[in-house]
């Protein structure tokens, strides 16, 4: 069985950067919801450099689809040693105007999707007493953010899930950690900048509360994820690393 890394939300932004980084040392599986062309472009970029990559469509908020993805991977004689739960969405709105469906959509993708992937892909890790999970949260879960009650709740849940799961599976040789990015140049960041309800807040926060006075780059987050997924982080368990330019200090 071929040992692989699986990255959700890998067609763009931080997920794509993580896939490119990990592909330098292991085969990678890029999981995407709808952006087929972007995912295939990322696969081509990896394979053109001599890497090994495949793309799979999957809505991680649907447990049955994640189970089916797990079966497809096993049928192709692969097992997921490194799981990067990166997929996430925004539905920003002031709490007084927040619709129930926007609350549920964000929780279903960001938090439930992470749960679904852990449930499915932990099985092979436990059987082999080896594996790594890196969950992608957000510094918003640590400091809070106006207009993002749903997003902050989902990302805070991911940090709590990381700690609890890490305690459970560490005795089986599996490390679970978390990365909480701050503002990172991506489509999601641009959506926040373009949202008139929170745009000014985002810009003010970066200029006055982020010591580096800039948004991060996806590659900067990817390198931290790569470290956590590597043997160099063999004694790190249940930790959340804030990659935020000092915003959360």
Automatic annotation (TrEMBL):
The keyword Nucleus does not apply. GO terms for biological process: monocarboxylic acid metabolic process. One of its GO terms (molecular function) is oxidoreductase activity. The keyword Membrane does not apply. SUPFAM superfamilies: NAD(P)-binding Rossmann-fold domains. Residues 3-182 form the Ketoreductase domain. InterPro entries: KR_dom (IPR057326), NAD(P)-bd_dom_sf (IPR036291), Sc_DH/Rdtase_CS (IPR020904), SDR (IPR050259), SDR_fam (IPR002347). PROSITE patterns: ADH_SHORT. Keywords: Oxidoreductase. This is Ketoreductase domain-containing protein. It comes from Candidatus Lambdaproteobacteria bacterium RIFOXYD2_FULL_56_26. The lineage of its organism: Bacteria, Pseudomonadati, Pseudomonadota, Candidatus Lambdaproteobacteria.
